[in-house]
Design a protein that fits this description.
With 399 residues, this protein is an alpha/beta fold. The chain folds into four domains: 7-105, Nucleic acid-binding proteins (OB fold (Dihydrolipoamide Acetyltransferase, E2P), Beta Barrel), CATH 2.40.50; 130-262, Rossmann fold; 266-303; 352-392, no CATH class. The chain contains eleven helices and 14 strands. The protein has a five-stranded mixed beta barrel with strand order 1-2-3-5-4. α4 (149-161) runs parallel beside α8 (253-260) and α5 runs parallel beside α6. The longest helix is centred in the C-terminal third of the chain and has 44 residues, at 305-348. It starts with 6 loop residues before the first helix and ends in a 7-residue tail after the last strand.
Length: 399
């Protein structure tokens, strides 16, 4: 029988043997994450990797855990790279993980998806948060690399389309580890400059190059911006989380400049069209008002005292004419009737008989029609056709 070892000695020996085995150095192990947690004080990550039949403990020290491009979750299939060893205190086998990536998917993609879900839960991408982009801005702020071609394209397009707009450039590092903090700082400065619109832009690049625009801090900086934001990151087919948080996404930086400022020639044409429409509308309005004024004048004339007086005068003249005509007609009728009566009277008049040699005898104004009415000595008046004579009755002869 060999020498007797203590537990500590045995564990140390096992640890030494495993560390000395080159096959267990830089070993890559694929498995499912279980019981993942990070010590909030030390920053070390502790978890297990398991498959259908076995499990092994893992530790990822803070220096390595801080470089993870995704958030490991229980049940996630990953590939861990590290050195196998023995945790001497418990005598358990473990892997000291230096790198870890999702199995079957890139770490970058998983990290972006996890950040996207987190920000969606916070309501960062909601449509109700979107602000309208001003149609005619006086000032546009641009956050981008000062040396990139994207900036020159935006300057050229802005000067061509709308040269009166003031373009303010806020330089930022748009690639690398320092990019997120640089972009956030530039966005905050641009948001305070009084611009009407803010453009966050960079030219094309790989997925790794565009990662700063998928970072949580940049997305939140875009969402918290008081100024309406247009993002133009990469090529037309590239989409970042900053695009979801922005008020408007442009496919390219050049397109962002076109969306941010109006086209001067189009504005001139639009003003001309509006001027023509305004002139036509004014002419129509004047015509309608003139027609209405004529209607009111007609109504006023019909109801005015002058018109009523004129109508009364005309009515009076008409009545006067009718009265005159009626009077003349009546006079004519009366004249005809008088003439007729005169003719009849003349035909029956005793004076007409007198003209034939007869005379009319009257006594004291009364006609004498019989000799018996007279007495001797009566004085009578003899009426002839051409005059009268006074006579005294000398004798009465009776037939």
């Amino acid at each position: 029988m060999g020498s007797v070892l203590t537990v500590t000695q045995l564990n140390k020996y096992l640890s030494f043997k495993i560390k000395a085995d080159p096959k267990l150095m830089g070993v890559a192990v694929r498995g499912e994450v279980s019981n993942f947690n990070i010590n909030y004080r030390s920053g070390h990550a502790y978890f297990s990797l398991k498959d259908e039949t076995s499990a092994i403990s893992c530790v990822m020290f803070a220096s390595a855990a801080s470089k993870l491009r995704f958030g490991p979750e229980d049940g996630m299939s990953v590939m861990a790279i590290g050195n196998a060893g023995v945790y001497e205190r418990s005598g358990s086998c473990q892997i000291i993980v230096s790198e870890m990536v999702p199995a079957g998917a890139g770490a970058v993609h998983v990290s972006v998806e996890q950040t996207k879900k987190e920000l969606e839960a916070l309501g960062v991408f909601e449509q109700g948060r979107k602000k309208k982009i001003p149609l005619v801005p006086k000032k546009v702020a641009v956050v981008t690399s000062p040396t990139g071609a994207a900036l020159q394209d935006m300057i050229r397009i802005t000067e061509r389309r709308y040269p009166v707009c003031e373009l303010l450039v806020f330089p930022a590092t748009v690639q690398g580890e320092a990019a997120p903090s640089s972009i956030c700082e530039a966005i905050k400065k641009a948001d305070l400059c009084g611009a009407d619109t803010l453009i966050l832009a960079r030219g094309g690049g790989s997925a790794e190059d565009l990662m700063p625009f998928n970072s949580r801090e940049v997305v939140l900086a875009v969402a918290d911006c008081e100024t309406p934001v247009i993002t133009a990151v990469g090529h037309e087919t590239d989409t970042t989380l900053a695009d979801y948080a922005a008020d408007l996404r442009a496919p390219t930086p050049s397109a962002a400049a076109e969306l941010a400022v109006p086209d001067r020639s189009e504005m001139i044409s639009a003003v001309g069209a509006l001027e023509r429409r305004l002139g036509a509308a004014a002419d129509m309005c004047i015509s309608e008002r003139e027609h209405r004024l004529m209607q009111l004048e007609s109504a006023l004339m019909l109801g005015s005292p002058e018109k009523r007086l004129s109508d009364a005068v005309n009515g009076l003249a008409s009545l006067e004419g009718r009265l005159r005509a009626a009077a003349e007609r009546l006079l004519g009728e009366y004249d005809a009737r008088i003439n007729e009566s005169v003719t009849v009277l003349e035909a029956l008049s005793p004076f007409r008989v007198l003209s034939r040699g007869y005379s009319l005898v009257s006594r004291e104004g009364s006609a004498v029609t019989s000799a018996a009415q007279l007495s001797q000595g009566d004085k009578v008046t003899l009426r002839f056709a051409d005059g009268s004579a006074e006579a005294e009755i000398m004798r009465i002869n009776k037939d």
